[in-house]
Give the backbone structure.
Amino acid sequence: MNPLLLLFLLLPVAFLSGWWSARRAGVQRSAVRRDDLSSSYFRGLNYLLNEQPDKAIEEFLKLAEANRDTLETHLALGNLFRRRGEVDRAIRVHQHLIARPNLGEDLKTMALLELGEDYMRAGLLDRAETLFADLVAMNAQAPSALRHLIAICQHERDWHKAILYARRLEETSGEPQSLQIAHFYCELAERAHAHGALQEAEEHLGQAFAARPGFVRAWMLRGRFAAMASDPAAAISAYEQALEADLDYVPEILPALLDAYARAQQMARAEQVLGSIVARYEGVSPVLALARIYARRDGHTRAVGFLSGQLRQRPSVRGLVQLMDTTLEGAGDVEANLRLLRDLTAALLEGQALYRCTHCGFGARAHHWQCPSCKNWSSLRPVHGATGA
């Protein structure tokens, strides 16, 4: 919901709540006072309807200050300031709330949580982390605080803390965190391997598998580490396990797997595995790889025939480009026209997303384990179809 609209809905409730509290306490409001409050409210509403949000906010602020019992209004105002990027004002509103005497524990906890989000938005991550950790220690708003702590740890790449908080969140809320935890262990494995701590890297991969059995990213890392250690047989085994774990990662796995097959001189097995993938995978990547094998071994005629048949079943611009490349090597008089057609087709591919996030729709040319937009893990999947992988 639009935060300004939410504020508009809360104001009459807060106004009536303050009026009723005052009435019960025996405080008589003067007609002038009621008129002032009503005037501020309706002026703010008028500014809102006339798309003048800055003036509307100022009027609502006056109303909130005039009626100190409008706690929900203060919370809504602070949230609105943060969403508008006015973080300093949001911090002041929430700090003012927290400092108020006799504030109920529930409202104080909500204000502390909002203040932590203000700090995060302002880039004051150390303050935010301390505040959220205190809330978790008090077992107040623990799930929300833990989610924020995990986000801070991911930003700071403190994967050990992220794992601890994720496990705590799973215990507190019952929300499964195995996918995130497995990714965190993979991040630790990559860091350890980059620093030459090979045994530690392998241990972290084992922990990733323990958190998420058959985890595709862990298999891919094990294959990469084996390839870097000049062990193509182990690399092949790991990459084939990765394919079995999740076929959606075929475009990422195939180049390294085919290189391992070549190093191990197992191209017959490569052809067999590619044929199996072609039968199960909708994309064009394994078709292109198999066509290249046919071109090298049997000649371009076989490769062109195979590609033509496959492209009729699964139209693909990428496949068309490779078909023209293969044909060009013996194109004769039609070479110039084919080259022009190829260049135009290749131009269509430029800028096209090869991966799309299943959660927020973010498109990317390269694969990311964590979506750069919504920060979800394992949500970027290959785009199939004419321009897909």
The first helix runs from residue 3 to 24. The CA atoms of residues 240 and 273 lie 9 Å apart. The radius of gyration is 30 Å.
